[in-house]
Write a structure and sequence with these properties.
It contains 19 helices and 11 strands. The chain is of the alpha/beta class.
Length: 425
């Protein structure tokens, strides 16, 4: 078995990830970075290092999965959560707290954002339990520190949140101690169904933009697990380019821009545990260990309900072309020189670009070269950056239809129609 095949088996069996989705350019860039970090003189020596060093395997995975995140990303989801809390918050107590799962939590901005929304809803810290999980030890360590560059609060005004995200003199933000009391960071794998189903049900689950990198089988498995983990009246938030598969028992909630799902029916009390299957131990699944949050004094809680002023969501991220001449690449594509054009879009700068047009064009070229899985991944990446990116919505819908996912394609087409109507109004 060659190194790439070994990588594919390890990613699929342990984490449900599909190597082809990342693309040859991303894989090559990650190996190059790891060789430089390790001081390896030749790339040919890297496979042996990866095979014998478990820490290097995890470092490789962390770099492969690196993503862009920030506080209150995609505000519509947090606004819907606030509305849900308005209706339900009075039922939560220290004995029966609000339970929230953030998976994967990455470097922690989403988990702290969830904590901030519960604070603004008037919930005491003792009435909230947020479990933030990820497979990356280094990401969890960063999350536990709770200190971030101020640019990580890019879609909301600093003045709105500075009582919870304190600006420091070195242009960083420090998470307030009250938020720290609400969050626990846990090293865990989304594919470990047994571990997740052994926990009490969650009222709110955020699992956004993880399944775009997974195989269809892994996505179905994770969605089924999360559906069983969800309380009967709870909400599951997925990413813009993700959806619950048919037969998962989940239905889309009618909330524009939030991409929330709820359970179609209710399981009787206690049935969550009975519904849990006992999967075989997965090779490569990381041993879980809890990371203790920083100790912090519990401040006095203001009993008054806080009613924040509505905040308009600014553009999530500025387009960054990274010096890529898209017009020239379109010209190459028009001449049928697909592979030549794609070369410029598989560089590290292009695969990490924050411009959805870059990923959309890459998807078109990959599709023309019959690299379907990679094409879909780039279109999902474009929608991750811009949920209303019309070309990517259309291309991904067509691709889903080709794969027999008519329900998923119909949802994307519905979003495209809605976006068109809004643009005309």
């Amino acid at each position: 078995m060659n190194f790439q095949d070994e990588l594919a088996v390890w990613l699929a069996s342990g984490f449900g990830l599909e190597l082809a989705i990342f693309g040859a350019g991303s894989l090559d860039a990650v190996i190059g970075e790891r060789c430089r970090a390790l001081g390896l003189p030749e790339r040919a020596t890297y496979p042996a290092r990866w095979q014998r060093d478990a820490r290097e395997r995890m470092a490789f995975l962390e770099r492969l999965l690196v993503g862009e995140t920030w506080f209150f990303r995609e505000w519509a989801a947090f606004a819907l959560l606030g509305e849900w809390l308005d209706r339900h918050r009075r039922r939560f107590t220290a004995a029966t707290p609000l339970r929230i799962l953030a998976l994967p939590c990455a470097s922690g901005e989403e988990a702290w954002s969830l904590a901030a929304v519960t604070h603004e809803a008037g919930l005491r810290s003792s009435h909230v339990s947020i479990e933030a999980m990820d497979v990356s030890p280094s990401a969890l360590q960063q999350a536990t520190r709770g200190i971030y560059p101020q640019r990580q609060l890019r879609s909301q005004p600093l003045s709105r949140w500075e009582h919870l995200l304190h600006p420091e003199t070195d242009a960083t933000l420090r998470v307030d101690d009250d938020l720290r009391d609400r969050v626990r960071f846990i090293e865990a794998n989304a594919m470990d169904s047994e571990f997740l189903l052994a926990r009490p049900p969650f009222h709110i689950i955020f699992c956004r933009n993880m399944m775009i990198y997974m195989s269809g089988e892994a996505r179905n498995r994770v969605c089924a697990t999360l559906g069983q983990c969800l309380a009967s009246d709870g909400l599951l938030f997925l990413g813009h380019a993700e959806q619950a598969p048919a037969g998962s028992g989940l239905t889309r909630k009618d909330a524009h821009g939030a991409f929330a799902w709820c359970r179609r029916g209710e399981l009787p009390a206690g049935d969550l545990q009975a519904a849990a299957r006992k999967p075989r131990a997965l090779p490569g699944v990381m041993t879980r260990r809890r990371i203790t949050p920083m100790a912090a004094p519990r401040p006095a809680i203001n009993q008054a309900r806080v009613n924040p002023a509505p905040v308009q969501l600014a553009p999530s991220v500025a387009c960054e072309r990274s010096g890529i001449d898209l017009e020239a690449l379109h010209h190459l594509a028009d001449q049928g020189r697909y592979a030549e054009a794609l070369t410029a879009l598989e560089t590290p700068a292009a695969t990490q670009s924050l411009d959805p047009d870059v990923h959309n064009l890459a998807g078109v070229l990959l599709g023309a070269l019959d690299r379907k899985a990679e094409a879909m991944a780039r279109w999902r990446r474009a929608l991750y950056l811009d949920p209303a990116h019309s070309a990517s919505l259309l291309h991904l819908a067509l691709s889903l239809e080709d794969h027999g996912d008519r329900e998923g394609a119909a949802r994307l087409r519905g979003r495209l129609v809605q976006n068109t109507r809004e643009a005309r109004s």
